[in-house]
Amino acid sequence: MNIQIINGHLIDPKNQIDGLRDLFIVAGKVAAVGSAPAGFVAQQVIDATGLVVAPGLIDLSARLREPGYEYKATLESEMDAAVAGGITTLACPPDTDPPLDEPGLVEMLKYRARELHKARVYPIGALTYGLKGAELTEMAELADAGCIAFSQADAALTDTRVLMRAMQYAATFGFSVWLRPQDSFLARDGVAHDGEVATRLGLPAIPVCAETIALSTMLQLARETGVRLHICRISSAEGVALVRAAKQQGLTLTCDASANHVHLTEMDIGFFDANCHLVPPLRSQRDRDALHAGLLDGSIDAICSDHTPVDEDAKQLPFAEAEAGATGLELLLPLALKWARQSRRALAEGLAKITLQPARILGLDAGHLSVGAVADVCVFDPEVYWKVEPAALKSQGKNTPFIGMELQGRVRYTLVDGQLVYQSKAGQ
Amino acid sequence: MNNPQLNKHGELQHLLSTEGLPAPILRGILDTAASFMSVAEGRDIKKLPLLHGKSIFNIFFENSTRTRTTFEIAAKRLSADVVNLNIGSSSASKGETLLDTVDNLCAMHADMFVVRHSQSGAVHLIAKHVAPEIHVINAGDGRHAHPTQALLDMFTIRHYKKEFHNLRVAIVGDILHSRVARSQIHALTTLGVPEVRVIAPKTLLPSCVDKLGVQVYHDMAQGLRDVDVVMMLRLQNERMQGAVLPSAQEYFKYYGLTQEKLVLAKTDAIVMHPGPMNRGVEIDSSVADGTQSVILPQVTFGIAVRMAVMSTLAGVG
Prior knowledge:
The complex is a heterodimer. Chain A is an alpha/beta fold. Chain A is built from 13 helices and 20 strands. In chain A, strands 8-9-10-11-12-15-16-17 form an eight-stranded parallel beta sheet, sandwiched between helices. In chain A, strand 4 (23-26) and strand 5 form a beta hairpin. The longest helix of chain A is centred in the middle third of the chain and has 18 residues, at 208-225. Chain B is an alpha/beta fold. Chain B has helices at residues 23-40, 66-77, 98-107, 122-129, 147-161, 179-190, 220-223, 248-255, 259-262, 285-288, 295-313, and strands at residues 55-60, 81-86, 112-117, 135-141, 168-172, 195-199, 215-217, 229-232, 270-272. Chain B has a five-stranded parallel beta sheet. In chain B, strands 2-1-3-4 form a four-stranded parallel beta sheet, sandwiched between helices. The radius of gyration of chain B is 19 Å and the shape is globular. Chain A binds chain B through residues 194-196, 198-205, 207, 270-272, 313, 316-321, and chain B through 1, 4, 19, 97-99, 117, 119-122, 124-125, 141-145, 179, 182, 206-209, 211-212.
């Protein structure tokens, strides 16, 4: 189908386009930007007056909860949420039940996702069997089945020899290894940042050194093995400083932060708000400021949603017993825009953190609207304010610290492969 | 962020923590408690009809003898109907959730809940959940708060020292795991105590304890010097596991309160302990039973203070 998106403000960070341009789509690909290609006849016209036309968003961490946790969320519900959030490509961590450590599981997940014709799903394979941190998975087989990287999700990998071997093996095939730095001994039983709020509320705490000690180990092993390392969800000022220094020393390294941590601090826990029970814990104002600085200077490459839908029952518990995590697919765009606005940067810079940069981390030719590129497009109203309410979210998870807050920027159209997969009316 | 303990008129709706409560509310409870002293001690009048017809549920998800008993006595002296539930041994072990348990008790027309739970924040969760006509009293949640203990401690201090504004108070022991210490610190600073000290090894102090407005000491001899009040904390035996402390013997040697250490405090200093005591671990028997100890009066005052809290919440104080 030939689609013409007219009168929109096109922002394409890769091609440094930031202005009024029409977009022409033919047979699922970008056919032209600006003026129509010869002989183009639109079968569908999308009027994007007052709207931004951007590459479809790419999320580096979205738990879809299948297989094994269908009572928390299903592929159907979360794929609806993804495209409602303008996300056309997402990577999902391997901490399903069973974990993504067998090619069959990965193939099934990819097949089920493909059948839904919504966002593209790239599973991240388990680095070790059962995420137990002891035996390596068949990474090459898993990659053939569709895994785009390998990770331990939030499971501990305490044995540094296993970690080194896992990196060596992954490096053999050029696979990237994604790790969230946290020393499991220092973090044991902890549920909140070791700071003022945990002191006041009497919550078991996780010190910053739990992140920096694990991170230092990972960086040294990455140097040793030459693996492509991606650091997931950095949370502390000291952690950002280590990443910055390692990058300056020339280590092949990428890093993301969750949209929650870019905007929230331990103070948001208030009186034990279980929606703020997150992994890693929300840290101090100073740490949040360091995440902002890291995003600005490129130490942090991307913002992810860290989408973790949790069922209501699991949140209606005392803070420490409540399951950690927040729904996030539908909040990624407004939260990335919010960061750009707060930092007095162009929206294009915010968009790059959720399009072009995550595409680079994934090694995908995506996240841009060059002629010939796959037409994954997100059209959004950058100005409209909307209130985050459980009923307004398509995700089965209604748990987010942003409930009740007003966010700016909302998706109006999402296209995957040049097909309209989501649209909402103005004012909704 | 609204204080969940106060209603829209600024009156006490629940008692969850001493943090964030205005000084007049704290003083009001202490004054009310003073007026109940003769009843609390069972002298002339045995009972007051203030809570006649009200149902008070003591829900204890964690074991307690002293606190539960004093709440029960306090409620009965106010003529309330009291139901005691030790959930630790019933519903929770059958897999019922905290809020399901609470809903069931609400359906039995409870007017007030007195709750103890092993998790910080559990009582806030209940207070947020119940209907607005129901009042919730925190009888200890995890490491977070134990406000009635702190209030009875304040009552004890006022009883012996009359004023707060000229005092130097030391809290000694396991601050990190102590809900009592947190509630004491907030109550003391709110009531205007100019110098609150905490004395403990670094493994028993939360990382930002100085942000609570206290001075930190690691040495008993320095920390106890010239104080008016010494508030000892219980040391749980499990602290010897998990590499928090090497041994009870070493702890007693450096942080146990003995007569030799107590002489560094003012001569008229009082010694307090929330109980139950570990004699020979955090406190020497000669001090616990000595002339400066006010540990048993604390228990008696606890009844009057809990009567005051219940009647204040019910709006009949």
